[in-house]
Design a protein that fits this description.
The longest helix has 17 residues. This protein has twelve helices and 21 strands. The chain is α/β, with parallel strands linked by helices. α1 packs parallel to α2, α9 packs across α10 and α11 packs antiparallel against α12. The structure holds glutamine. Glutamine (GLN) binds next to β18. The site of glutamine (GLN) has 11 residues, from β18. Keywords: Amino-acid biosynthesis, Arginine biosynthesis, ATP-binding, Glutamine amidotransferase, Ligase, Nucleotide-binding. Pathway: Amino-acid biosynthesis; L-arginine biosynthesis; carbamoyl phosphate from bicarbonate: step 1/1.
């Protein structure tokens, strides 16, 4: 080996020791998070009672206060922190089918640099009423973790139960459907289950009013991209981040705001996700119908937003037996538009109980966009090219913080369309990709990480 190569080799080894994987691993081991003493829950009993008569007994973690909720299950394997902070889970007791939850702890919820005003997780705190897991991890390990699942749940007064057979609970919920429940802790866990009439039904509450912003606010005020209004039914933070990341100036409006009175100020309208039954805000759907009829700018709806678009278009919404919650839902595209190609299957993240009814004939000006490959439920609707409109709704979450990101470019399509319209362009033809002007081009070419 020549002297020249030997010197280079030594330099490489030295630099690897300073900054390579071994050095990083050593530093990580030395950080307090890796050497922390776990805060353990007091060993107190807990029970999950279902209105249908079954009870499951285990141990408590998190809050020691008992809570009611609608019991639902999620098949997601990762991102429990994102699911639990998703406002669409408001009022629900969330059963995780993944056997161990909590391994990577909980990160700080402070905004990421570049995204002031947007929490790191999906909202400002935990939204679900309780969590049910087979085995809670009492120790965590992740470079971003600042506390354990137990400590986090305690801080947000959300009780958890561990040591129950989540497979049995999930099989039951799949058969009989989403069921009202009570997560009982401590002395209450030893007492008989509540009477049928005592179960609290979150669908009787205006959950959207609780999840929405009380006042309008603006994000990325000095951005150069299109001006997009978000009707907030309980928006996930990563939806806002996905719009801001593409240069949009985003104005978030309360769920019952009269958008039609201010629509001239905007280049596009986004309808967010949210908790509860879409039919509970029929007035909003009728205002959106007026927007669709009188305004020709792009509109994009996700989950609850998609259901509201459907109601506005004249489709019906129904309650599914157990809904779809998880990060592995395959959907087939029936139309091409922007980044989406007809005939392709995309894997998506979902969290919903309601869906739009699939009908032989769609209302004039509308077509199905996606369909679920497992249960054939409607996964998206789109305005037809003849309608001259540029409107899409999807039941799934293209922006899902926990992935998959197969459909993330729908945000680029939407922001581009808004920008294009702003510059006086005409409507998009299904299947055509248009990039509107330099701002949108620049925004679209930025590296995108969800
Ligand atoms: N994630 C959502 O927006 C859910 C919409 C509605 N609450 C449902 O359960 O179907």
């Amino acid at each position: 080996m020549s002297a020249f190569r030997a010197i280079n080799l030594r330099a490489a080894v030295t630099s690897t020791m300073k900054s390579g994987p071994i050095a990083i691993a050593k530093r990580h081991l030395a950080t307090p998070t890796s050497l922390y003493t776990p805060v353990l829950p007091a060993k107190i009993p807990a029970a999950l009672h279902l209105k249908s008569g079954q009870s499951y007994f285990g141990e408590n973690f998190g809050s020691e206060n008992s809570k009611f909720g609608e019991t639902v299950f999620s098949t997601s394997i990762t991102s429990y922190t994102d699911s639990m902070t998703d406002p669409s889970y408001l009022g629900q007791i969330l059963v995780f089918t993944s056997p161990m939850i909590g391994n990577y702890g909980v990160p700080s919820n402070a905004s990421e640099p570049g995204y002031p005003g947007i929490p790191y997780l999906e909202s400002s705190g935990i939204q679900c009423s309780g969590v049910v897991v087979s085995d809670v991890a009492l120790k965590y390990s992740h470079y971003k973790a600042v506390e354990s699942l137990h400590e986090w749940c305690k801080r947000y007064d959300v009780p958890g139960i561990t040591g129950v057979d989540t497979r049995a609970i999930t099989s039951l919920l799949r058969d009989q459907g989403t069921t009202l429940g009570r997560l009982a802790v401590g002395d209450e866990a030893a007492k008989p289950a509540p009477q049928e009439h005592e179960y609290w039904d979150p669908s009787k509450e205006n959950l959207i009013a609780r999840a929405s912003t009380p006042k309008p606010y603006v994000l990325n005020e000095n951005g150069t991209g299109p001006r997009i209004a978000v009707l907030d039914f309980g928006t996930k933070a990563n939806i806002l981040r996905s719009l801001v990341r593409r240069g949009a100036v985003v104005t978030v409006l309360p769920w019952d705001y009269d958008f039609n009175s201010v629509r001239d100020q905007f280049d596009g309208l986004f309808l967010s996700n949210g908790p509860g039954d879409p039919k509970s805000i029929m007035d909003t759907a009728m205002r959106v119908r007026q927007t669709i009829n009188e305004w020709d700018k792009p509109i994009f709806g996700i989950c609850m937003g998609h259901q509201i678009l459907g109601l506005a278009a004249g489709l019906e919404a129904y309650r599914m037996t157990f809904g779809n919650r998880g990060h592995n839902q395959p959907v087939l595209a029936l139309a091409s538009s922007g980044s989406i190609k007809a005939g392709r299957v995309y894997v998506t993240s979902q969290n919903h109980q309601y869906a739009l009814k699939l009908t032989e004939e769609f209302p004039d000006g509308w077509a199905p966009f996606f369909i679920n490959c497992n249960d054939s439920s409607v996964e998206g609707i789109i305005s037809t090219p003849e309608s001259g409109k540029r409107i899409w709704g999807v039941q799934f979450h293209p922006e899902s913080a926990g992935g998959p990101l197969d459909t993330i470019e729908m945000f680029t399509d939407f922001v581009n369309e808004c920008q294009y319209g702003r510059q006086g362009g005409s409507s998009m033809i299904a299947g055509e990709v248009r990039v509107g002007g330099n701002d949108a081009k620049a925004a679209a070419s930025q590296p995108i990480t969800a």
